[in-house]
Amino acid sequence: MAEDVRKVKDVSNIKEFNEQYELPDCIVLDSGYCSMGRMIAYKACQLGGYAYYDAVTLLELVPQYNVTKDDVDLFEQKLRVRSFTAEELQEDAEFRRLSEIFSEAADIALSRGKCLIHDRLSKEEVIAKGYSCVNAMTYATDIKAKIVKARVSVLYENVKDDNAVIAAIRQEDMIRKNWKRGHSRSEWGCLETYDLAINTDTFGLDYAAKMLASLMKK
Questions:
Q1: Which end is more exposed in the chain, N or C (fewer Cβ atoms within 10 Å of the end residue's Cβ)?
Q2: How far is CA 158 from CA 129, 150, 152, in A?
Q3: Alpha-carbon gap, residue 141 to 76, rounded angstroms
Q4: Cα–Cα dist 176/83, whole Å
């Protein structure tokens, strides 16, 4: 039934209508490939004052393991070819090893203060470590715009065939889906499981960064 909101009773004293937002210790950001997630997250952290971490910067916190971005990229060649179950991932020795290293790096990042972590960790894991967390996702659906954005990357700047670029975008997303599946009960990209989901086709880089940065301020 239609309801006239002007006639809704006063809810100012009802707790469920007036939850107070507390700045989280950590924001975990998932992002679809070519939704500008890293760029948006980095800029948001500059605006909001949180520290920014991703796979590259997390590994810099644990140099004792001598794991490089190239090592991660090599393993991820496996994750891009098909969808794995959580059980398959947990049975994979290299997945477990890398996950443990990223988890240890996240412990260091979290201990240093409020931060945003792009991929590699789930909201459940942050909460299990004893920190408060909000999870967000950036996504995009305009495939033509995604092709343009993909070609900004050195990985795909020389790929001339559009269909090959589209295939690569899907493979990059498959990597992210598999990482999430090994670390969370929630499915990567299922928008209703995120506290905030931003369609970057609509808002663009700068405004999306401001929206994400708003989670870092009161």
A1: N
A2: 42, 10, 10
A3: 24
A4: 10
**How is residue 53 written in tokens?**
């971490």
Beta bridge pairs of residue 137: 30, 197
How far is residue 127 from each of residues 56, 88, 98, 117, 144, measured CA to CA in Å? 23, 24, 20, 13, 38
Please give the pLDDT value at position 9: 83
Tokens of 213: 């940065």
Q: What is the CATH number of domain 24-216?
A: 3.40.50.300
Q: Using one digit for the tens of pLDDT, what is the confidence trace for 2-53? A: 888 888 888 888 888 887 889 999 999 999 999 999 999 999 999 999 999 9
**Bridge-based pairing state of the strands 133-139 and 196-199:** parallel
What's this model's pTM, rounded to 2 decimal places?
A: 0.91
For residues 181 and 109, what is the distance between their CA atoms, to the nearest angstrom? 22
Which residue type, as a one-letter code, is found at position 36? Answer: M
Give the residue extent of every domain in the chain: 24-216
What tokens were used for 189? Answer: 């990209």
